[in-house]
Amino acid sequence: MATDLQRPFTEEEVSKALSCMSPLKSPGPDGLPPIFFQKFWHVVKPDVVKYVLNFLNDHIMPTGFNETNIVLIPKIKRPESLAHFRPISLCNVVYKIASKSIANRLKPWLDAIISPAQSAFVPGRLISDNVFIAFELNHFLHTHSKGRKQFLNLKLDISKAYDRVEWCFLERVLESFSSLFRHAEANREVPGVPICRGAPAISHLLFADDTMIFCPASQDTVQHVQEILASYKQASGQKINLQKSSIAFSRNTPLEVQRHLAEVLGIRLENKHEKYLGLPSMAFRSKRALFASLKDRIWKKIHGWHEKTLSQAGKAILIQSVVQALPSFAMSCFLLPKTLLKEFQSLAADFFWHDGDHRRIHWIAWDKLCLSKLDGGLGFRNLEAFNLALLAKQLWRILSRPDCLVEIGTGHSVDVWKDPWIPRPASFRIITPNVHNVQNMCVSNLISPITREWDVETINALLWPVDREAILQIPLSISGGPDLLIWHYSNNGFFSVRSAYHLALSSSFASTAGTSDGRPRYKKLWKSIWQAKVPNKAKVFMWRAIRNALPTASNLRRKMPHEEIVCPFCTDTDETIIHALLHCCFARQVWALSNFCWRFLNDPVFSVEDWLCNILDKLSSADFDCALMICWTLWWSRNLKMLNKGFLLPQQIVDFARTYLNAFVVQNFGQFAPRLAHNHFWQAPYGNCIKINFDGALLEGGKSLGLGVVARNSFGVCLAWCSVRYERRGPAFLAETLAAREAIWLACRKAWQNVTIEGDCASLLSKISRASQDRSVFGPLIFDIVSFAAQLETVSYSFVFRSGKWFLNSPL
Q1: Does the structure show a pLDDT above 90 at 223?
Q2: Which ranges carry the RNase H type-1 domain (predicted)?
């Protein structure tokens, strides 16, 4: 570890640090956001790299390097003093690059150097760990009504912990605070509380300034706790707020003992601690009452937004980013009642459809709003499915071995007949019965130890064709990595809440979720609408038009049959959406003036989606965007006339739509520099570097895989090449991955120490260059590539278009 941390920083690390930064972060004193450096890196790279490396390697800090702008962010609506502001420091981008380079260097070692008691801010550790432990311990105290041993739970509040001392000092003190309790626990002075026989005793839980202490309810233990708190106070200057701190006891503790120990500590006695880290610390009979505060918080947010004029596009963003995010922390730890989740969704639906009056017609059911945008929804979350997905994340961390899908490395630890190791839903197990009664057979018995390939003869003798075909599609690692647990439903084999959510929607909620139109033609239409360069309110309007969710005369009569409503332009009583946007005489005049849609007016169409699909195939993307804006403006003008506020003439509608669209495009897409043209030709490497190009392809309609590899020096001379054909089926990504492995293996065989691996599969190169662990079906191959690359002195990866490696795609 020390050798890795102390080695000099390199140009590649500086470039990687800049690429990891968010492009539009607020600028510091230099006045430039990271996107400027990212867009013009080919220009500023030499100076910036020299500047940063001088600081990191030579410890030379130029003047102004660490200067910052301090911005005050108000904590409340009407701040009156400095205490009502939160200071934010904005640093120069070059300083951020240096600090990010250091952070990237430290990141792989954080798990080893940070105390196991720290339960967050480290990959693989979650704040919910503290919540679960506190919940179990508090539940144990609440139900512990018998026995000689009595316990207490002390909840401390540190007065203004982050305002009284500097951050670096606070971190050291809090770590020492934890060490004092660990030392006292080891000496049996503060033994801690075990919830059952054989369970580890927990003496304290620390998360920032939230502190819980668990120990026996005895005079001696309380005195030791007082000594620790006194030492902490004397060393840090931090003050324990006795008024906000509280103490609770197990049920078998006599009341006089509770009162005495609370008096000794000078802390308020409580029957139970209601919350820890913002969540309930124990369960009551009514879970709905337990989480009622979440509904109040959502209602307050929505009630504040009602005072503002928001389009439905803005409301959709707020629902996704705020309303549905508020209960996420609670849902990641607890299964919330379905009735409460429906109330959350009801509040969100009322807010989305609220239009200023009190009628609030919900034109589309919430289940249909939860469909993906490509299926005709708005991508809102089904909270019940999302709750299960968040809890599945916790379950995945403690999942028992038999219920996991296994990725094959060596195969020594995977049973052929019992374990789920076939990447085929839903059982993931062998279908063939064990007719030969072969016991304790591992997957390694199906792999040739010499070639590290599948033993086809053994597989053919034991298994049915359906299993044989599935097994032979699994790529194997040459270097024989370990057998790993993987999640089948994500691309990289790691569990993700997103994949679990979609799995929950497609299975348990398939009967109740809104139906989608999965026809490719309509998916193309939805994709074109959501990717159109038009304002979001125009996109949401077109979504409503296609879903027949606009208040036309025809639709309003279905909701309010006693209302007399007609088309405001032609007084037609049967005003449908297709009538308002296309068939009305006024609308036809507008489209006749548009110069691109007039020739489609007489096409026989009966719905908005059919008409849009028709013009989508015949118009350019710019004209299609303009057509969407004309639809939105036409509807806006129609509403003005309905409200007797005037209206736009046909030519004015066309002019307004085009002007509005042009201003929007310039504002949002015209201020960035155009993308630099990539080099489409092969470029020779520099110096003694050897460039190895690779490519994979599907042959004979996907019946087999082929790959090619060519190595050249800086003069363009071909040093080696190879081509391989695999008689197996598989996706194109498998062919590319096999080709990349062959390329790096060629460098190892030739003992080339300075190589550049170049291909046209950007996703594969990204995985390899990050040396990220991959648990997908391609994981063993990626493991091989990373392992082989570690044997070389210098390896870099480069993307090239197919035309840049023409010699691989042409006949040899």
Answers
A1: no
A2: 693-803
Q: What is the 3-state secondary structure (H, E, C) of 665-731?
A: HHHHHCCCCCCCCCCCCCCCCCCCCEEEEEEEEEEHHHCEEEEEEEEECCCCCEEEEEEEEECCCCC
What are the strands, taking DSSP E only, across 98-234?
A: 151-157, 204-207, 210-216
SS3 797: strand
Which amino acid belongs to residue 355? D
Domain region containing 89:
2-110
User: Which residue, chain included where needed, has tokens 């020390």?
Assistant: 2
pLDDT tops 50 at residue 422: yes
The confidence score (pLDDT) of residue 62 equals 80
Domain annotation covers residue 391: no
Are 170 and 259 in contact by the 8 Å Cβ rule? The answer is no
Are 640 and 652 in contact, with CB atoms under 8 Å apart? no
CA 804 to chain centre: 34
Write out pLDDT tens, residues 297-308: 888 888 777 656
| CA distance between the termini of the chain | 47
Mean pLDDT is lowest, of 170-184, 310-324, 766-780, for: 170-184
Phi, psi of 514 (to 5 degrees): -65, 145
Q: Which residues contact 639 (CB under 8 A, 6 or more apart)?
A: none
The answer on 634 and 557 residing in a single domain is: yes
Of 501, 500, 489, residue with least CA distance to 405: 489
At 336, which amino acid appears? L
Pairing of strands 718-726, 754-759: unpaired
Q: What is the DSSP-derived secondary structure letter of residue 248?
A: E
Task: Centre a 10 Å sphere on the Cβ of residue 468 and count the other Cβ atoms it contains.
Answer: 16
Measured distance CA(757)–CA(795) in Å, rounded: 7
Instruction: Calculate mean pLDDT across residues 439-462.
Output: 82
Phi–psi pair at 250, nearest 5 degrees:
-65, 160
Measured CA to CA, the distance from residue 211 to residue 178 in angstroms comes to 10
Other beta carbons within 10 angstroms of residue 665's beta carbon come to 14
Give me the CATH number covering residue 695.
3.30.420.10
- Distance (Å, whole) CA 594 – CA 167: 63
Q: Of the residues 56, 80, 110, which one is the last residue of a structural domain?
A: 110
Best CA proximity match to 789, nearest among 745, 739, 734: 745
Distances (CA, A) of 53 to 1, 21, 106, 161: 21, 18, 17, 36
Q: How far is CA 614 from CA 90, 139, 217, 624, 657, in A?
A: 50, 63, 77, 11, 21
27-47 per-position pLDDT tens digit: 899 899 998 998 888 889 999
Under 8 Å between Cβ of 172 and 115: no
Cβ atoms 695, 808 nearer than 8 A: yes
Counting Cβ atoms within 10 Å, is residue 680 exposed (0-12), middle (13-18) or buried (19+)?
Answer: exposed
**What's the Cα-to-Cα distance from 169 to each of 176, 386, 404, rounded to whole Å?**
11, 40, 44
**Total domain count for the chain?**
4
Q: pLDDT band at 49, cuts 50/70/90? A: very high
Q: Is the pLDDT of residue 206 over 70?
A: yes
Q: Are 665 and 703 part of one and the same domain? A: no
**DSSP states of 765-780:** HHHHHTT----STTHH
Query: Residue 89: which of 17, 167, 36 has the closest Cα?
Result: 167
Contact criterion met (CB below 8 Å) for 340 and 288: yes
Which has the minimum average pLDDT: 515-519, 612-616, 707-711?
515-519
Extended strands (E) in 430-509: 484-486
Rounded-to-integer distance, Cα 168 and Cα 177, Å: 14
Here the contacts of 640-645 (C-beta below 8 Å, separation 24 or greater) are: 641/568, 641/569, 642/568
Domain endpoint, select from 110, 142, 166: 110
Q: With contact defined as beta carbons under 8 Å apart, do 627 and 536 qualify? A: no
Tell the residue number behind the tokens 């196991």, with chain if given: 116
Predicted confidence (pLDDT) at residue 80 exceeds the cutoff of 80: yes
State mean pLDDT over 760-783.
79
